[in-house]
Amino acid sequence: STPKPSSAASDVYKRQCDTYKIFILFFTRINNKWIVYIKKKSEAVFYDSKIATKEIVDEVFESVNDRNKLVRTLALAKSAIRHNMANDLPKMNTPTAIIWGKQDTVTPPSVAKEFNTLLPDSNLYWIDKCGHAPMMEHPYEFNKILKDWLGNRNL
Fold first, then answer.
1. Distance CA 40, CA 122 (A)
2. Could you give the 3-state DSSP secondary structure of residue 78?
């Protein structure tokens, strides 16, 4: 038969288990609040919040919890803030199709109009009832616009 642990050892073990349970409950609550926050932010990207599926929320959650991805994303965002491309856009002669969601709240439609004005060879297309990611929210309409634009440009 296996020896019984002493009462003191048993008490330590119970305290460790209780601490572990508290840690798990605390972490789960924080994790759940974080997931709820990410879900709300993901939904805000789209005109139709149902586009923010569990898979999309999980992908965003994974990205913000991956230190390397997060650092790269923040560096890119800071770079975009520091470097206003308004002076560079008029020098870009590459044909450009700008396909924008009319209800984009992340980057407002006024930015699309400004890009279209500044880019010398651009066409601006709007997708109604669409937020920041038209290629995800209205993939068929997005692809049709792009296909027609490429065809008209013989590209």
1. 33
2. helix
Instruction: State how far the Cα of 117 lies from the Cα of 114, in Å rounded to an integer.
Output: 5
pLDDT of res. 7: 57
pTM for the whole structure = 0.74
pLDDT digits (tens, 9 = 90+) for 49-76: 999 999 998 888 888 778 788 788 878 8
SS3 category, 123 = strand
Whole-angstrom distance, CA of residue 68 vs CA of residue 75: 11
CA 143 centroid distance within chain: 21
C-alpha dist (Å) from residue 2 to 5, 6, 98: 9, 12, 74
**Alpha-carbon gap, residue 138 to 98, rounded angstroms:** 15
Exposed/middle/buried for 131, CB within 10 Å: 0-12, 13-18, 19+?
Answer: buried
Q: What is the spatial distance between Cα 97 and Cα 109, in angstroms, rounded to a whole number?
A: 15
Structure tokens at 128: 């109604």
